[in-house]
Specification:
20 strands, Alpha-Beta Plaits
C-alpha cells in the first residue's frame, strides 16, 4: 500500500542519516578537542575518574614545589653545617699549636676568637626564606605526597626534617619530673687527695728473699737482708720512692705499704710477686682508682629532648639540656663542655665509658682544695645549643689549651653529624621529588589513555562517516521521490 501521508522508507533513511550526522559530529569534536571524553555526557564514569586523577596531578605539582623549597632549605642548612665544620677544623689546628710551650698563646687565642665569631655569623645566616635549620630545635615537616585511600579519602604525607641547633645558647634547666636517679656522683666532694691501695707483708721471711711489686707497669724490688717483716715493708717503700713513678707515692708503717696515686683520669694497676716461698704479700686491690670523682649515667633509661642534667661543684650549678636523638654519652660530653667553659681553677674533666657496662662517665678532677660535688636531673628544660662549649674555649693558659683540645673534638663531631644528617635528608627529598615527577607523568598518561582520542582511528572514522553521510543523503533523496510515482495514477 502506498501513502502520501506516511513514507516509511523516507523515515528509515532520515533516521539513518541522523545517526550518521551524530557520529560525524562526535568524531569532529574528538578531532578538534583531542578528547574522546570531553564532557560528562560523553562518558560519565570515565569523565569522573579522569577529573579525580587530574586534580591529583595538580596537587602533585604543588607537592613538587614544596619539595623543591624543602630541598633548598636543607641545602642551605647542610652548607652552613659544612662551613662550621671547616671553621672548627681550622680552630682545632690552632688549639693543637697552643699545646706547645714556646708559643704566643695570646695571638692564637685572638685567632680562635675570630673563628668563633665567624661560626656564630654562619649559624645566624644559614636560612632560606626565613627558615634556619641549624638554629632552634623544633622539627620541620616538608609536604611530600598525597595518599588516596580506597574509600576516596585523601591525606597529606610529610618528610620530617630534624633541626640541629649549632648555636652557643646555654639552655634552661627543666622544672619537670626528677631524673636524678639517672646520674650518680661517686662522692660528695672532689679534691686533690690521692686514691690508695695497701700492700701488707707477712709470714716468715728468710734473708735473701726478693719481693717484687709492679705499679702501673713499673716493677720495684727489694731483697730482704733480715727476717723482719717491717724491714721488708720499709725496703719496698724506699724502692717505690727511688723508682720515681709519676704521681705515685708510698707511705705506711710496720708491715703496710700504702701506695697513693694522684693520676687524674687513669687507674693504676698493681701486682706483686716474690722469688721464694717464704713470707707473704697481700694486696687490698689490684688497681688504684683515678683521683677524679665521677658522674655515672644510667644504662637502663634513655634521653629525651629537654632532659636536664646538672653537676654542682662547690655550690655552683653547671647544666646541660639534651636535644632530640641524644644519649647519655652526649649528655656527659655536654656537661664537660659547660664545666670547661666556666674556666674553673684546678678543675679538669674527661668523658669515658665503662668497659663492662658501657655506662657514660664524666670524670671531674680537682687539683686544689676540696669542693662539694653532687648531680641531679629534671625533665622539661630548654635545650642547650650544640656548640655551647665553643664560648668557653680559651688557650691563653696551658690548662685552658689542654681542655680546649678535648672539647674541640666533641664540637667537631657534633657539626659533622649535623652536616651528615642534613645530607641524608636532602638526598631523601631529592629521591621523593624525582618520584613525584615520574608519578605525575604516569598519572597524566593514565588520564590520557582514558579520555584522549585516538587520532588515527578518528581520522579513518571521519572519512567513513563522510562517505556514509553522502550515501545517506542520496538514500533519503530516493526515498522522498517515491510518492511522486502516485501522480501517474491520476493522469
Amino acid at each position: 500500500m502506498s501513502s502520501i501521508l506516511t513514507n516509511a522508507t523516507s523515515l528509515v533513511a532520515l533516521q539513518t542519516l541522523k545517526s550518521i550526522n551524530q557520529g560525524l559530529s562526535d568524531t569532529q569534536n574528538a578531532i578538534s578537542t583531542g578528547k574522546k571524553v570531553a564532557t560528562a555526557k560523553d562518558n560519565a564514569a570515565v569523565w569522573s575518574v579522569s577529573k579525580v586523577m587530574s586534580s591529583d596531578v595538580e596537587g602533585f605539582k604543588s607537592i613538587s614545589d614544596s619539595l623543591a623549597l624543602g630541598k633548598s632549605t636543607i641545602a642551605v642548612a647542610r652548607q652552613g653545617a659544612e662551613t662550621v665544620t671547616k671553621l672548627l677544623t681550622s680552630m682545632k689546628t690552632k688549639i693543637i699549636t697552643a699545646q706547645g710551650a714556646n708559643v704566643d698563646r695570646g695571638k692564637i687565642n685572638a685567632d680562635i676568637s675570630a673563628l668563633r665569631d665567624q661560626i656564630k655569623s654562619v649559624v645566624s645566616a644559614a636560612q632560606f626564606n626565613g627558615l634556619n635549620l641549624i638554629k632552634g630545635f623544633k622539627s620541620v615537616d616538608v609536604l611530600s605526597s598525597l595518599n588516596r585511600a580506597s574509600d576516596g579519602s585523601v591525606t597529606a604525607a610529610n618528610i620530617t626534617v630534624a633541626r640541629h641547633d649549632l648555636s652557643t645558647d646555654a639552655g634552661v634547666y627543666g622544672t619537670g619530673s626528677s631524673l636524678s636517679s639517672n646520674v650518680t656522683a661517686s662522692a660528695s666532694s672532689v679534691s686533690n687527695a690521692g686514691k690508695t691501695q695497701t700492700l701488707t707483708v707477712g709470714g716468715s721471711i728468710a734473708s735473701g728473699d726478693t719481693f717484687n711489686f709492679t705499679i702501673g707497669g713499673t716493677q720495684v724490688s727489694f731483697t730482704a737482708t733480715t727476717t723482719a717483716v717491717n724491714d721488708v715493708a720499709t725496703g719496698l717503700r724506699n724502692a717505690i720512692a727511688a723508682a720515681g713513678i709519676a704521681n705515685i707515692t708510698a707511705s705506711g708503717s710496720g708491715a703496710n705499704v700504702v701506695v697513693t696515686s694522684t693520676n687524674k683520669f687513669a687507674a693504676t694497676s698493681l701486682s706483686d710477686s716474690k722469688t721464694s716461698t717464704n713470707g707473704t704479700l697481700t694486696l687490698s686491690g689490684t688497681s688504684i682508682a683515678a683521683r677524679a670523682e665521677t658522674l655515672t649515667f644510667s644504662t637502663s633509661t634513655t634521653v629525651a629532648a629537654g632532659d636536664s642534667y646538672r653537676a654542682t661543684i662547690g655550690g655552683v650549678n653547671y647544666d646541660y639540656v639534651a636535644s632530640a636523638g641524644q644519649n647519655y654519652l652526649d649528655v656527659a660530653k655536654g656537661l664537660k663542655g659547660v664545666i670547661d667553659k666556666a674556666g674553673l681553677a684546678n678543675i679538669s674533666t674527661k668523658v669515658t665509658t665503662d668497659s663492662t657496662t658501657g655506662a657514660a662517665i664524666l670524670q671531674i678532677d680537682n687539683n686544689g682544695s676540696s669542693l662539694s660535688l653532687s648531680a641531679a636531673g629534671a625533665a622539661g628544660g630548654t635545650q642547650t645549643g650544640g656548640l655551647a662549649a665553643l664560648a668557653g674555649i680559651d688557650v691563653s693558659t696551658k690548662s685552658g689549651a689542654a681542655a680546649a683540645l678535648g672539647n674541640i673534638e666533641n664540637l667537631l663531631q657534633t657539626s659533622i653529624n649535623v652536616a651528615a644528617d642534613f645530607g641524608s635528608a636532602q638526598g631523601r627529598i631529592q629521591t621523593q621529588n624525582d618520584f613525584v615527577s615520574k608519578l605525575t607523568d604516569s598519572l597524566k598518561s593514565g588520564v590520557g589513555s582514558l579520555v584522549d582520542a585516538n587520532m588515527e582511528e578518528s581520522s579513518a572514522r571521519l572519512q567513513a562517516l563522510q562517505v556514509q553521510q553522502q550515501l545517506g543523503v542520496q538514500s533519503l533523496s530516493i526515498a522522498n521521490k517515491a510518492p511522486r510515482q502516485l501522480l501517474s495514477l491520476f493522469r
